[in-house]
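Example with several molecule types.
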Amino acid sequence: MTNIAILGFGVVGGGVADVILKNNDTIARKTGEHIHIKYILDLREFPDHPLGDRVVHDIGVILSDPEVTVVAEMMGGAHPAYDYSRAALEAGKHVVTSNKEVVATFGAELQEIAAAHHVRYLFEASVGGGIPIIRPMSSCLAANQLFEVDGILNGTTNYILTQMIRAGKSFEDALSEAQKKGYAERNPKADIEGIDACRKICILSALAFGKSFSPDDIHTEGITKITAEDVAAAEMYGGVIKLIGRAGLSNTEDPESDVFMLVAPHVILHDNPLSSVDDVFNSILVRGNAVGDVMFYGRGAGNLPTASAVVADIIEILSHKETDVFVPAWTKASADALFCIEALPYAFLVRMEAGDYMAAAAAIRAAYPDAEILTAADDFKGTIAFVTPLTTEKALRDAFPTPLLSVIRVMP
Amino acid sequence: MTNIAILGFGVVGGGVADVILKNNDTIARKTGEHIHIKYILDLREFPDHPLGDRVVHDIGVILSDPEVTVVAEMMGGAHPAYDYSRAALEAGKHVVTSNKEVVATFGAELQEIAAAHHVRYLFEASVGGGIPIIRPMSSCLAANQLFEVDGILNGTTNYILTQMIRAGKSFEDALSEAQKKGYAERNPKADIEGIDACRKICILSALAFGKSFSPDDIHTEGITKITAEDVAAAEMYGGVIKLIGRAGLSNTEDPESDVFMLVAPHVILHDNPLSSVDDVFNSILVRGNAVGDVMFYGRGAGNLPTASAVVADIIEILSHKETDVFVPAWTKASADALFCIEALPYAFLVRMEAGDYMAAAAAIRAAYPDAEILTAADDFKGTIAFVTPLTTEKALRDAFPTPLLSVIRVMP
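Resulting structure tokens for the full complex:
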């Protein structure tokens, strides 16, 4: 029997308890032992919960109990989650977490502390909810030089965009429906402005390329400016708009080349498997030099899917009891080592106001002779939409110095 | 440095050598050591290959060399692949394999021998080529009681069906194109009759439910009888025909309930993510009681993708050097423990000949008042297509004792 402590008894922490209580026999069949929840750390009391008697309010009780070998941190937020995780590792306890903010910001440091104390810091649940992605990338794809990771990493924004695409809704109406259904929080900023997706792509990028960048240094656009007209223009071009976290090597042949990374709405053409990932589902496409493209798909959030990943990490620890697992280190990297996003080659879907269709079309052809103009002359209502050939955002802005209604990257 | 031996230097064996030679520095960064190919066992000589000097013809050389810690078996076929794998395990060497025939038939036994000799028998490459599926199922989803696995497990048949769907080709024309492109072998029997997919679903089922059934006991239909008319009828119903390997618990709530398993063409409705898996791609959908549905997608064959999985297993062995990994055993199970496929509830897409539309429609309504008749009266050309409500194949055959043109299961 392995004794664990749960830090934070909210939605995910409660889900972890539920999964362990429900599936403990299944888990024991797979690992040879049961999991016992010895402590639950929370500010609140849970007198009516079957595990209510396990609740403590002092992290010291957990840190000083040698019977506790694994700490599951599901508190959310940077502090005190980071501080407690660090203290647990220093006390020689394994830590598993669903906390993407802590992993994205402090992951490199906490992995180093774990290695120094011969314990493990695992975070399968920090990206993609229950979708197996962290271990598959670090283990099953380890024979590859990976060169790109693209993901639909946030279920809330994917639900909103799916509503805009399917039902022609405005962003505001789709957001308010997502809030009604409980898919978006009352304060949806972290989701709709891309902050959540940014933390996740930082984690995936660190896994793929070994360099840990601060989320603050990453070019991050949300979906608040996407309009029904943008959605319609993307459809005319044969695609859908998705919020994508994207990271890759600027030179696919050179693992030491600068990494590019961004979070932004992208037009995804229908032949890309990410295009059919709808509603609250997440999906991550990984590209490697041996395996080609592989994709992982599932529910990116929710108490039970996320708990599935947290408990999988606990099982991983139970299954491999040796104390010195070789874990490749993440190197902390500064923004200087990031490839400049304005110089990253992209085709762009552009919408702009124009007084006269022929004049606008001529201006577009003058700047980009190979541009594809999506708006037909007899559909012209004062705005024109087109897709550039491969260019850079800088060149595009130089070519059209007047304000553009929208500039959306097309996924290569 | 770890010394390995490659058994079988064909397409996959050559791919494994290529991936190791190309990515050895990447691998060393992830594991702390390089891989050295000490021996290659093959009947042939490879005088012009850079590793030509490693070729041996006697398995005894490899078995008796204590420096060889891992044997990678890529010979294909049951014998002598099984015999050599067994001998290597008994000699205290880890074995990794891409050989689905050996894993499906002898997996339970070889895992037992591996455990007894404190080594590991790993087979990530045996299903789905480079797609991470074996370790994600056994490790990342270990917190779940899994209750169903559905997969597009054979790239050749998926390519043929995609050609039939997209270009309206006949089965024969699509097969001959697949052969021209090298996607189908000259003797395509193992692919088009579902034998390859059957071995793979047996492996996935054993992983999910712990019971290893013989492929010979599994209900297996190929795609040779699928016609352009079937494809058109599926489209009228809002779906596509895919060859599916499907295994599940007959009672989703009871992990001890009988397992159902079959390989057969299924109509997949467009809202199922498997419906958009086209060409030679494979995809596996796994359903668990915590995670919900997760899907894994990628190239199911090819030398480099398969090699990616083989080398990942070698890396897994290098990363976890402890000798006693707890591996849940597969229990050999007899056909008696299989749920009867004829009694498995399904909706069926049925096509039948009929002299008279109104009489045929009346007969269908008499048997199944809720059937959906797909053929419109004014399109009637002597055959009629319909979809039954949930029923069983036995009940369907009893209701329509005359020979039916086609009976295709609709994926629930």
